[in-house]
Each structure stands twice: as structure tokens, then as C-alpha cells.
Amino acid sequence: MITHLQRASDTAGLLSYLYGPGERGNHVSPRLIAGDGHRAPIELLAEPGSLPYLAQALDAPVERLGARAPARPTWVCSVRSDPLRPDLTDAQWATVARRLVSATGIAPDGDPDACRWIALRNQPRQVHVVASLAREDGGLHNSYRDAFRLQAECRRISAELGHLPTVPAPTSPAQETSVPAPPITISSEFSGSVVAKGAIDDLAALILKHAGFQQIEDWHGRRHRLPTTTPVADQVAIASHAAEMLRAARYGVDLAPSLDAARMSPPADPLGPYAAEAALLQITDRIRSAENGADLRRAVDQLLHPEHGALERVREALEAAGEHINDLDDEAYALADRFGFAAEFVSSAQSELVDSEAELRHVGNTPQTQTEARTHSPKLPDHRGAALATSPAVAKAKVSSCLGVETTESSVAVRPPRVSGPRR
User: Fold this and answer.
1) What does pTM read for this prediction?
2) Residue 395: CB partners within 8 Å, gap ≥ 6?
3) Count of CB atoms situated within 10 Å of the CB of 255
4) I need a labelling partner for 47 at 20 to 30 A (CA). Which of 86, 123, 394, 400 fits?
5) How far apart are CA 17 and CA 260, in angstroms?
6) Which residues have a Cβ under 8 Å from the Cβ of 342 and sit 6 or more positions away?
7) What are phi and psi of 317, to 5 degrees?
8) How far, in Å, CA of 357 to CA of 230, rounded?
9) DSSP state of 140
10) Is the pLDDT of residue 140 over 90?
């Protein structure tokens, strides 16, 4: 299961969108499946003609706050299930929604003053949970780290449903001493990322992680890769070091010649350790030279792409730095937290701009064209996201140039997104 967390300022507009046909006409049979209105008749109000009254019922605790009310008081969580698994029934999705609002503290079990919330379905394999951030007792829900709590609970639910890959059986001593077949292949993909594939058991996975590879486990299985922004010299050093350790452990390894340090002379890099600067400068030049909204959107996509964008790479690097600081020094937790908070700020910036693609298409159009586009393109109300090993070979390669500090980048399996404090 994957969650996407947002904040909205217009509850009535949000409900009109969720109960409407959707941007692509893909909303089918919108219906309420769960909720708690604290004596407000949400079941009677959850009809297209009564949506303004349902919005008023959800917003009533916010209105009582007066000047203390946040600018974006509506908490919106969209949850998708694994497309490779059977869809859940309405009753199962209702249980999922109740567990999510309980896990985040929106509506803990047995709390009479919890926030008001509803869960509705308008598509297969998806449910939307809409809640007020204002509690019945006049307090405000603290949404800090809600994204992490949501993803952790979704992982527990997926495990209970059997939607996660099964844990590999323990490797017997006889298997540990044999050479896997087929061999482990370390190569470069078209995207620029270095990947390790093949017969990777727990021992090989540990070796790859120690070398500097990042491990991802999702419903596609276990994968190991280096971020696309890893400098070429570091890619060669990490891949060669990983191959050397795997061969020492009696694994067969096919290493691409372009990643074999023994076959390559040191590449001439005019920017030295700041090779990433050149790529970002190219993105900046493309943004400045954009002649229309479409060109600008394509250039900005290199910054905002959820998997390969520059912001995602920066977030991965900051998060990896915080984790590795903890690995190197347990007492440096304050410094590690600072890197973690910085990664969450970047994640918050990604969430803030996640829906900008459609708007960028209209940049530079005439006012009349923009008005027509807004008229014929209903969209979700304004919102802001509330989400949210360095290789020994690289360290060895940089001993001679220790005038600066570098951090090998890494990524995580789940983007949870995940966060800075919500904007009030």
C-alpha cells in the first residue's frame, strides 16, 4: 500500500471534486464507507446534493477555533493498494481507514474528543480519508511525522493481507559455501544508475550494502542500485569494490568493463568532486531558455520527477547522510537529526509542487486560454503536502583530497514521503 498525504483549505471544494467525475472522468460510484462525525449525521449528508452540509459538519470544530484555525485545516490521505493483488472490499477499506486515523492520532480508538473524519471510495484500489485537524475539545492535531506513521501502518496491513514478498528461507551452510548461479551482474542502466542483479541472497545483499549499494524492497522484490546522481568515479570505485568482495566470498560476478577500476584510467573531471553542479546548471539553463509553458514544464520535470528528479536525489543524499552519521557515531544523534529534518524539508517542497505540471502547461498562454483551461479542467483545491552507507571504497579513493567533505548518496524504499511543520 502507498499513501499520499495532503492539506486542503476548502473542504467543500475538495468534496465536490472527490464526489465528482474527476479530472479524467475516472471517479466511479463515489460513496461513503466509514467515518465519525461526533453526532453529525454524516451518512445522511454524504450525497452529491448535500456535500456543502457535509463540509460544514467536518469544518464545525475548525470554525470554533476562530483566529487559531490553521489556513489549511483539512487533512487528506489517499491510499492505493498493490495493483498486482486482489482489490479490497468496502468493508476491508473501511477497516484500513480506521486503522490509519488511529495510527496517526487523528481519531485514536476510544478518544471521545478526536477529530471528525470520513472515508470515501471513488475508484478501484483506492480510498480517500478526509479529516478535520481540529479536535472536539478545541485542540489541534499535530500532524508532524504523520506520513511516516501512515506508511508504517500500511506496511503492517500489507503484511497481514499477504501483499508483501515472503521472507527468504534461511540459507543453509551448504548453500553458503556454493557459488550462486547465475552470477551476480553489476552494470549501468540507460538512466545512469548502477544496478546489481542476479542470485543475490542475504550474504550478497549485506556485501552490496557495505560496498555502498542501496537496497530497495517492494512488491517487485529485492533490488540493489546506486543513485543516478552518483559521480562516475564513485560508481566505478563502489562497483569494483563490491565485485572484489563478492568474489572473495566465492560469488560469481560479471562486472561491466565501464565499471571496472582495473581497466580504466582515472577520468578527467574538470569540476572535481562537484560534478553534480554541471547537471544542475544544465537544468537551470533549460529553464531560463524555455520559450513556452510546455518547454518550462519539461525542464522543471528534471527537478520534480518523483523518482529521477534532482530534488529526490538531494533528499536521498541528506537522508543517507543522517543515517550514516548515526552508524558512525551513536552520540552524534543531534547532527543526524538535522540532516533528517533537512531531508524532510526537501520532501515537503516536493509535495508543495507535486501538482504544478498541469499548471505549467498554461504558463505563457493568453488570459482567455487560461480561463478556458480552468473552466474545463477541474482540479483538486490548493493543498500542501505534510509528508514526509557511504562506501569504504569511496572513502579510500578520497583520502588524498580531504580538504572538503563529501557524502555518497543513497535512497530509501518508501518515499514517504513523508516533514517540516505544517504551514499554518
Assistant:
1) 0.43
2) none
3) 24
4) 86
5) 54
6) 318
7) -65, -45
8) 27
9) B
10) yes
